[in-house]
What we know:
Layout: E1 22-26, H1 30-36, H2 41-62, E2 66-73, H3 81-105, E3 107-113, H4 120-132, E4 139-147, H5 149-163, H6 169-173, E5 186-189, E6 208-211, H7 221-232
Parallel strand pairs: 1-2, 1-5, 2-4, 3-4, 5-6
Helix pairs in contact: 1-2, 2-3, 3-4
Bound molecules: farnesyl diphosphate.
Farnesyl diphosphate is lined by residues 27-32, 45, 48-49, 52, 69, 71, 76, 87, 90-91, 94, 143, 191.
Amino acid sequence: MSVKSNETKILRKLDLTRLPNHIAIIMDGNGRWATRRGLPRSYGHKAGCENLKKIIINLSDLGIKNASFFAFSTENWKRPQDEIDSIFNSVREYLHEDSHVLIERGIKLTYIGDLKRLPTDLVDAFKRVMEETKDCNKMTLNLAINYSGREEIVRAANKAITNGKQITVEDFDKLLDLPEMPAPDFVIRTSGEQRLSNFMLYQMAYSELFFTKVLWPSFTNKDLQKALINFQHRERRFGGLK
Ligand code: FPP
């Protein structure tokens, strides 16, 4: 077992040959993290974004091939406008300031969801970074933005109807927002909530779920690796026998 960079210290119990192919993370608890410190919720989203940057580096150091993060749900539009703006500002800043990190590390940016309702400059920034990283092949970083699992399923169903013929599960897979992305093997949700909140509902049919009480801005590389060690003790049967 080798440590790939100085940034990621690998826990001894983690087997680098048995990592999930696709890890999906519901980054919950930004608001509570800020409130507990007497800060406005927007600080929590800023801290959450800083943590996301670190965890992306940690995942890349570990050699994880695919990572999805729930950045903004279709339900999040119900939040106050200044909070929505603070989340978008974090995404905007990340795309402007960190695209070089993605390129250096061979990380391709993709998204699931519907970019249409987002501010135009944010859509442009997404498209620019996706274009700049389209040939990167070490890891795919998938951001769920203005995303709803149910809406993704309905979008795919509508594409099937437009195609006008009955389809199989395999055909349906190809109609999802990002057909080339394998289903998540492992899903982490921070902050103690134990639900999926409309995240990748179709793709999570056989995902292993992991819930931790740690709030997202406080979720460290060590927490990540402890979660991965837990994943490595799961027996995955996909409905079959041992
Ligand atoms: C849930 O915590 C978190 C969100 C709704 C936003 C997550 C977004 C980020 C971490 C920034 C994204 C940045 C990029 C670059 C993709 P909450 O606000 O619901 O927390 P609470 O349950 O404690 O209120």
